[in-house]
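Regression report. Comparing outputs from two consecutive submissions.

Submission 1:
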Amino acid sequence: MQLPYYCLNVKSSACDQAWVDPLDIQGINNARAISQKFGFPDQLARVLAARNVDESEAVSFINPTLRNLLPNPESFTDMQCAAERLVKAIMNREKIAVFGDYDVDGACSSALLARFLRYFGMTVKIYIPDRIVEGYGPNEQAMKMLAQEGASLIITVDCGANSPDAIKAARLAGADVVVLDHHQMSDVHQEAVALVNPNRPDDFLNKGIYVLLASYLLH
């Protein structure tokens, strides 16, 4: 058992309190190494050491970037299938529909994905269901309508993981479906071309999949 490090070696003050340093000896040495190597103030170096950041991670911790923080997109189940289908749609100039949820993350995800696709000159329709009339997630009528309007690829964002019937309806109407979702699901249905979801029973990630898909395509 490692003994505590006492500040100024004070084990019992006038108030009968020990001045125990919140860092152990290893942490103190780590803080000194960070401060000396990078010229950080002692207080900042101690905060980093208290968070178990060593000198090899100090600079990236202070200056984080998406490149360093995002996981490898290929680590998501079905991510490669989703990317390949999207690349095919772009190369063949297919009409794409984005079916988003009506809340903030659904709307932002829809806008992000549509903007990304329009950068490549794609025709993209965003469909947000009526919260009162249609409820949450893809429904058969809306999915069939998008397919009948010419969308050969429908991408659901922030929804779709638990909507096999609606996705099947789109498939029977002639459209492929890629699901990008993060909600809990009990079973993995096989109706979609790809189902990317960190909460799949067979997946163990929990990251921003919409940004990851775009970054994976650019890569």
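Submission 2:
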Amino acid sequence: MDAAEAQKQIQQMVNFILNEAKDKSEEIEAKAMEDFNIEKLKLVQQMKEKVRKEYAQKAKKIETQRAIARSTGINRSRLQKIGERDAMLHKAVDEAIAELSAYSKTPAYKTTVTNLMVQGCFSLLEPEVTVRCRQEDMALVESVIPEAQKIYTTEVAKQAKGTTKTVVLKLDKQNPLKGKAGGVVLSCNDGKIRVDNTLDARLRQLEEKDKPNLRKVLFPVQA
């Protein structure tokens, strides 16, 4: 083989190697571009998913805040309504107490005071009971004490057959009740135990005990 032929073969080998290298380079570049596109797509999908999650979380948070705001508004309105109704109920009771002052000037008040003392004695069940009343009721209360003592003894005998129980009612003239519509306060054991049987207290007890029915009367449900 002469030099020219040898040079030709060498050149062919060089060209073959260069072509192979070029093909390999293009293949590597194509693979790199494919991998890049795949990674880019994955990254885009991840970003989209992240945005969707963040949006969903923010939307849920906003909806929760709105629900809380609605609930707070409803509760505030309901509490305000309850407060207004309670205020009206208290006002109605206050007006009723004011009217009771007029009742204390009627003949029926004498019987009421007697019964209130007897009832108080049944609550205490003590042999000696102190009675307090308004200054203007002193004479009336003092006059019905004997009758109240008698009724108490009679009622005890009726309710507990064979039992005899008496009570001595002592009117406290030194400490009259003030700011009351009428009635009496009974106590024993140096005032440690007491029963408030004033008309005011009884009406307040009625207010608490029968509040649902009072509300129905004052605030009827609209059809």
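Expected: both submissions complete independently.
Actual: both completed, but the second showed a warning that disappeared on reload.
Relevant detail on submission 2: The longest helix spans residues 3-103.
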